[in-house]
Amino acid sequence: MILKKYLLPTVTVISLALIDNLSKYYVRVENIQELVIIENFLTIDLTYNTGIAFGFLSDYTNTTYAVSLLVLIWLVFQIKDSQGSSIELYSFTLILGGAVGNLSERGWNLITDNGGKVTDFIELLFIPSFNFADSLISIGISLLLFSEFKNR
Fold first, then answer.
1. Is 59 a catalytic residue?
2. d(C-alpha 64, C-alpha 60), whole Å
């Protein structure tokens, strides 16, 4: 029973983090610069970010990595306490998938003395560059907020 409850979220988190890291790897290896997908709307452009969202705290990579690990642990416990098929469970799964994707790349880049940077490559309208993991985190937080407002 317990294995069944955690198997799908675990496989989903690992799959999402893998998709995130593979997409970043592809953009880096192909060195994709200014590839316009939809004119004035969506562009693929390789950039790097040593901070958290939108480059915030970019001078504190080690600190933000440590805080992010604590948040990751908190998320695991939130999934553990979530109901079987609730919006909260899906929300936390998406957030955790994105967090694992970004943290694994940042951790690798810290270990290999590559500055703890994360690959960003999606440019949408006026929004600063982001990646698949950032999208997962944003969607998960939006679903979580929706769930909270719905339950009030």
1. no
2. 6
Q: What is the pLDDT of residues 60-115, one digit of tens each?
A: 788 888 888 998 898 888 887 776 668 888 999 999 999 999 999 999 999 998 88
**Residue 88 has which token pair?**
């909260």
- Two structure tokens written together for 53: 């969202």
Cα separation of 121 and 13, whole Å? 21
4-13 long-range contacts (CB < 8 A, ≥24 apart) are 5/84, 6/79, 6/80, 9/79, 9/89, 9/92, 9/93, 9/96, 12/93, 12/97, 13/93, 13/96, 13/97, 13/100
Q: Rounded distance, CA 67 to CA 138, Å?
A: 18
| Longest distance between any two alpha carbons in the chain, whole Å | 50
Read off the pTM: 0.88
36: helix, coil or strand?
strand
Rounded Cα distance, 79 and 62, in Å:
26
pLDDT in tens, 109-149: 999 988 889 999 999 998 889 999 999 999 999 999 998 88
Whether 81 is catalytic: no
